[in-house]
Amino acid sequence: MRSLSRPACPQAQRQARLGAIGRRSVAVVRAQAAAAPSKDSGVESISGVSAETVAAIAKARTNCLTATDLPLPNRRQGKVRDTYDLGEQVVIVTTDRQSAFDRLLASVPFKGQVLNQTAAWWFEQTAHIVPSALLSTPDPNVALMRKCKVFPVEFVCRGYMTGSTDTSLWTHYKAGEREYCGNAFPDGMRKNDRLAKNVITPTTKAEDHDVPISPAEIVAQGLMTQQEWDTVSAAALQIFEFGQREAAKRGLLLVDTKYEFGKDSDGTIRIIDEVHTPDSSRYWLASSYEQRHAAGQEPENIDKEFLRLWFRSRCDPYKDAVLPEAPAELVCELSKRYVYLYEKITGQAFQVPDLSVPINERIKANLKKAGL
Ligand SMILES: Nc1ncnc2c1ncn2[C@@H]1O[C@H](COP(=O)(O)OP(=O)(O)OP(=O)(O)O)[C@@H](O)[C@H]1O
Ligand SMILES: [Mg+2]
Predict the structure, then answer these.
(1) Which residues form the SAICAR synthetase/ADE2 N-terminal domain (predicted)?
(2) Which domain range does residue 305 map to?
(3) Whose CA is nearest to atom 29 of ligand 1?
């Protein structure tokens, strides 16, 4: 994801990076049937989420988790998660924040719950490959994890030649590069082709912007030992392959994703943060991929691009002091897409929480029950 024409400002740089892997513009797969364009926005509305959940989404707009104020020590606010450092353990609260352009665009009902529960599901499914740091989920939005010393590397795994931003694999390939982050690619590839084999295109995990890096550089710079790299990269590829197989069973293609790993106090390497969530992964619809690809069309997916486009067409989200409020219709649509993907992946019905209780209060009560 090295920038060819590196964006000028750090915000733009970060945005390009985020867009590249789809962390903030991830594809959420579209329901195969009955996706009707909405009247006002032209954004397709997915079907497949129950009427009760759709009604709850509308209701929950006034009870989103945008900020947390838990009576726990050492709070640190990430883009999506608030973490509380308890020493040996960390309490990680996944909020409903939807950010892009380094800004909070909106709070999306149930997004935090979906991300937390999707990640917890995948952590369990992939435990036979590598243990996760997850200890429990004391609340739908909360993960209690072993505190790990995080490797300062993001393990980006890719199965396809795709992406459209300055930092994406396809952009580099199209510009003539045949080597990227230590991986070689043959001539003659087309956008969205399946790669001959999955690859890892690591980046450093920096505050402002992540920089593509090769395994040799990772070791040379002392970010990881050779042995750590060998172990973690092998695990990352195994988890990715497992995810692709599981996704395929559900009619989805797991296109690319990123993982974080760390070491716990015993020195055990664990996967942390999140796995195969709609924020960290790109999914395409399997059923139409071959046909569309052969016809030179983009694969079917549902992404969050529409919300970014809405802001872009109305303001300068990098510069304006105050952003307009995102339309309820778009925010609810985004929420539906998160819920849809959760249900599709896990095979479980989304459990609508009790909307009469403010989420922060519910979390406090649940943490107390868990003795935290
Ligand atoms: N088990 C863990 N031990 C220590 N730190 C953790 C653990 N799990 C997650 N973290 C850290 O918690 C933070 C969660 O923040 P969040 O996911 O909101 O933003 P981010 O990771 O900075 O950005 P992004 O996810 O977009 O890369 C990250 O810094 C992550 O590395
Ligand atoms: Mg994260």
Answers:
(1) 76-321
(2) 10-369
(3) 78
